[in-house]
Amino acid sequence: MRFDVITLFPEQFREAATIGVVGRAIANDKVLLETWNPRDFTSDVHRTVDDRPFGGGPGMVMKVGPLKKTIQSALEASDDPARVIYLSPQGRKLDQQGVTYLSQFSRLVLLAGRYEGVDERLIQSHVDEEWSIGDFVLSGGELPALVMLDAVTRTLPDVLGHECSAAEDSFVDGLLDHPHYTRPDVFDDEKVPEVLLSGDHKKIAIWREKQALGKTWQKRPDLLDKKELSPQQKTLLGEYKAELSGSVLSSNSIKLMPSEHKK
Ligand code: 9D3
Asked: Does domain 2-153 have CATH number 3.40.50.790?
């Protein structure tokens, strides 16, 4: 899969392209990453990429001319058809379903904006889709582009090693992950759950599924509302709740989720 990122800050992608799963995918030619700087597609002496907004107001707007040239050059760099994605706070919110959808394209051109955004005419004429990574304010589209690159790359064939297959990844089946433990088996008087030391892999798999269901119920009940549980999963979740009320319900050891701020 090929990613062409249009950005005023290509340096932000250099290091990312060498690190971890994405770095390995690029080194193994599973992913090709190219950056394109709109400043290189200006013709004035100041290499101007932004200007003041018509109608007034604070901030600057990215100019349509240099961006059009940049996108055209990126598109012409390969015969492969490409989807042009604008990372923007107005876009569709990215989730794992969206990541799977995006991974079907063999080529994505990611437009990372700065300032207040890009001239609307560029969006109308050259952008296929707008995507956000969530309802919080960032300083530009570079970090969202890196988020999209990372998440999509993980779903590609032969990219994950034994980390765990993309299909086993948390969220892919709509549940949170189960808890993890490593040595030592006792730390500050806290023991690792006995079943994980038993060597009984069937029992361990069942315990992990029960934990995943229980943690999701406790921390992200909205995910369970969206999901149809099998009869076995309903039984496991029922057992989780029963074990909770039987043991620690009256203690103060349950961490509450930080509640959302009310308007
Ligand atoms: C603070 C300025 N805001 C209104 C006055 C508008 C605004 C413009 C540009 C807010 C953020 C940005 C820069 N953000 C992105 O380019 C962006 C983004 C984000 O901020 N949050 C989540 N996803 C994304 S994708 C691109």
From this structure: no
